[in-house]
Amino acid sequence: ASLARESECGSRTRWGTPGLDVAAGVQAQLARAGVEHVVRGGWCTWEDERFYSYRREPVTGRMAGVVLAG
To answer: In terms of Cα–Cα distance, which of 68, 14, 64 is closest to 44?
Structure first.
């Protein structure tokens, strides 16, 4: 199922527009896959300057991320 259709991850932005809570969607999918214990960091890319946020700084270069499964 698409994350956008998952009721567990629907949210509202601080401006009242529809949003997507990606962490909640991933946690819901992990739970359905049998993962019993998930720890969420609770960090916000908007508030924490350690992380890039297009919402906070729309002028940007390029960024990429890679995840390797072992």
So the answer is: 14
For the whole prediction, is pTM greater than 0.85?
no
Per the CB < 8 A criterion, the answer to whether 40 and 32 are in contact is: no
CA gap 41, 23 in Å, rounded: 9
**How far apart are the C-alpha atoms of 11 and 45, rounded to whole Å?**
16
| Secondary structure of 46-62 in HEC code, one letter for each residue | CCCCCCCCCCCCCCCCC
Condensed to tens digits (0 to 9), the pLDDT of residues 22-44 reads: 888 888 899 999 999 988 888 88
DSSP reduced 3-state for 4? helix
